[in-house]
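Give me the 3D structure for non-specific serine/threonine protein kinase.
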Amino acid sequence: MPGLHEDECLSLAAAGRLPEEEAECLMGKYELGRLLGRGAFGKVYHAREIRTGQSVAIKAVCKQKVVKGGFTAHVKREVSIMRRLRHPNVLRLSEVLATRSKIYFVMEFAKGGELFARVAKGRFSEDLCRRYFHQLISAVGHCHSRGVFHRDLKPENLLLDDNWDLKVSDFGLSAVREQIRPDDGLLHTLCGTPAYVAPEILAKKGYDGAKVDIWSCGIILFVLSAGYLPFNDHNLMVMYRKIYQGQFRCPRWTSPELQHFLSRLLDTKPTTRITIDEMHHDPWFRRGYDETKFRHHNVDFETKPMLEAADGEAKCLNAFDIISFSSGFDLSGLLNDRLDGKVEADRFVSAEKPEVILKTVEEAAEEAGLRVEPGKGWGVRLEGQGGNFVAGVGIDRLTEELVVVEVKRREVEAESGRCLWKDKLRPKLLALIYQPDPPVPGG
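Predicted structure for non-specific serine/threonine protein kinase (443 residues):
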């Protein structure tokens, strides 16, 4: 695949943009640059897409930490959530890539950094508060319309692009509508940042995900306009008591209209707390609000079909889907040896063209005396040994450069003790496996 050479990667490290051990040219597509931040599972880098020169942010997540920590489902849900959302004020996930040791989330680059960094320098004017609150509510409304509840909204999770427009990020604690309990229609997982958590979450009796997001938006608006938190105390239990009782006071410079609006947002009773629809009738909110500009964008995440699946439907899997298939998260771990006559399924990633892969499979099958029948799309069926061996091979597009190959088979061991899969077909396919880890400079 096209990409930067090792000496070019080394030049990045030498220039001080990356520690040498992190200098990588990711899959020939992205040139990793400076470190932007660190998280629980990995690091976030500024990067440049080699083909277009466009800046992106890449979060590199350590698979071992995810697996050992039991966060596989958690991370997979975050990816699924971000794929649901397409809105100008929601940070966009472009693609997910993977190597043996890491998962890479390629995201929109927010050049302006965290909103928190700006408000930490001083409170905003009401007009600027309103501008950002309009964008925040537009994004949150879109999330809710897609069945997504953020549950950890705070200035640290609100980024700014190069036009200083808002981008909601970090959906790691988000919930989806499918997680709502059918018996009471509520969510029950306790989560969120203490100073931004809604009182009903503290009550531990279940809560409406949309209502707790509105509460957090109210805290954010207060912080932007006042420059400090409405509920704060060194003693966590004292702070929780203030939140539960709704004890806060607006600074003297707050306009009466904003004070009233904040009281509706920070209503301790979720049943009477203002909704997004009701906000459109509030005098403070409506001022300067462009309904056309901020209409909810209910656009599905677009996945361009690259190949036709065996069932005749267009299919395009992302890297995280494939990672979840593989035991131990090892994408190169092709073909186990459990040959007990049951149906076995093996998957591997390849950089070869589908037609090359199928030709290799067909040649190996014919050499082993198997009958080859073409299937729909990129797939074939293999049969032999009087029906004692049956296999299906299918190919799906993973990225523009990579495909995933799935082999499902049933085999009864021959009297000679030889197995067609282990002895004939598997060795031919091993050469097709993609080795995804980029070379380590100096290694």
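The first helix runs from residue 6 to 14. Let me know if you want a second pass.
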